[in-house]
Specification:
With 179 residues, this protein is α/β, with parallel strands linked by helices. It has one domain: Rossmann fold. Helix content is 40%, strand content 21%. The strands form two sheets. The protein has a five-stranded parallel beta sheet with strand order 2-1-3-4-5, with helices on both faces. The protein has a two-stranded antiparallel sheet with strand order 6-7. A hairpin with a 3-residue loop joins strand 6 and strand 7. Helix 3 crosses helix 4. The longest helix has 19 residues.
Length: 179
């Protein structure tokens, strides 16, 4: 199985990327393509710039999705919405293919330092991603990242870890039994 994974953040210390890396350990043995949005930097989207063509990395982002079997991502929440880095990548990609996520099964996550765990961006993405071709199979939010996650051990809050592991297993089951 080919997995395309990313954090919706361009922070060099992204807590969402740490969460993605932790979850990917449950998918060892699969072909994993974990990208960094910093490698997909593009000019800020505008219809004026679009007239000059699309950045090659926007096409590459879509190619990564085309070539995968599943998507695992964790979105950063900035001011109750997507990070600018992710939104810009998404905007460029959606102008090339409105079905950005190409009907691929997705495990959608968020985390934040606060107690809501990125709940605002999760609500937004859960509502809008399916309109852009996301087949969201499972969602997971980890609140209070710095209290509930350890760089060496991953999710350390037992209740959250149990919930996450259950969702990972449910996701795998849905992939094995799509109907």
């Amino acid at each position: 199985m080919k997995i395309f994974a990313f954090a919706g953040s361009n922070s060099s210390t992204s807590i969402n990327k740490q969460l993605v890396k932790f979850v990917l350990k449950s998918f060892e043995g699969n072909e994993i393509n974990l990208i960094d949005l910093n490698d997909y930097a593009m000019p800020v989207f505008s219809v004026d710039l679009e007239k000059n063509g699309f950045p090659a990395v926007a096409h590459l982002f879509l190619k990564n999705i085309e070539d995968c079997d599943i998507i695992i991502c964790s979105l950063a929440e900035n001011n109750r919405s997507y990070s600018v880095a992710f939104k810009n990548t998404f905007d460029w990609a959606s102008r090339i293919n409105v079905k950005v996520f190409q009907n691929k099964p997705m495990f959608l996550m968020t985390t934040s330092p606060g107690g809501f765990g990125g709940g605002n961006v999760m609500a937004e993405a859960s509502k809008f991603f399916p309109q852009f071709g996301a087949d969201i199979k499972e969602v997971f939010s980890l609140p209070k990242f710095y209290e509930n996650f350890d760089v060496h051990n991953g999710v350390i809050n037992q209740e959250s870890l149990t919930e996450l592991n259950t969702k990972i297993e449910n996701f795998k089951t849905q992939l094995a039994n799509p109907y």
